[in-house]
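Service request form, structural biology core

Requester: graduate student, group of Dr. S.
Request type: structure prediction, single chain
Budget code: on file
Notes: please return the result as structure tokens.

Sequence provided:
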Amino acid sequence: MATLKDSSLAINWRHISAFLGLTFGLTYLLDLVIFLRGGLDTPGTVTVIQLQMLLPAFSAIVLGLFFFPESPIYHGKPAGRGRWFYYYFLVLTVIYALGALGVWLAPAQGTLALAAAIPQLLAYLGLLVLIVLRLFAGRESIARVWLSWGNWRYWLLFGLAIIAFYSLQAVFNATFGMGGAHLEPGVAAPPGLSSNIFLELAGLQSVLLAPILAIVIAFGEEYGWRGYLQTELFKLGRVRGVLLVGVIWGVWHWPLILMGFSYPGHPLLGMVLTVFFTTGLAIVLGYAVLRSGSILLAAYLHALNDQVVAFIVALGFKPFDNAFSFGVGIYGVATLAIIALLILRDPVWRGKGINLM
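Core staff response, request fulfilled:
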């Protein structure tokens, strides 16, 4: 069962240490290779970063399937067909790793395209696997292994909130001279298609289609952080647990930040801002999981978060300095902190444990 009762709130630090050791060890090893090969501008790095996104769930799934008997997906339990997705995810991660290895060993243009395309297609196929399992395994079976979709109203409510948040951040940047103030799309419309129609289609793709297609990739982080780790640390109390998850999540990003990811030119300040931002976002995503009981919703919101930011930047509303701006900068972090504090006032944060059934 995924429901945690008061009588079973003893936190297992040994298991948490195993999860964090495996996740951070694999991730930091990949980051070291990225650094030694020339940094973030090296061809094929996008595929490697996507592989990193899979590693928290990969670690939690390996440990949960084969080493943690209390896990809802443990191989010795009669979990039903819903558990099949986790085996698929392990295979997907291995294929992503092979794709990254192919990029590094044979960085020709054709190899790069193939190494990126095959794992992406398999990630999209993973979404189909989730849908098929929901249809044929049944709601109870998939909920038993933490794959519930939750109520569609939460998807709409939280999704619109994220879109509104980043839209306002772009407006604030433009208003206060911290970012682009005019529409300057970085990609020209295809021949025969007007610019307005092209932008509308691109916007729909960014906020509707792309986040759905990216659910399986984002699940790689969300099952690790919001699924396994949050569920375990909530035994300390929900507020304390979600804050700790946010800090750990931020530290996990540090090697990339030091290489210029998100905050180019501000490696040390970027490390601090990353922890504050991921802590605020952890509260938002943790709240979504508490309200809906769905890790898949958290994966969708994570993907939507990334897609909306990328789309706004592509439109020309890019901050002049990511560290000193709204969005992911200091002022954006302050805005997110206010929202997080308001969310923490909800009575749902009282008590310990979490229910994912």
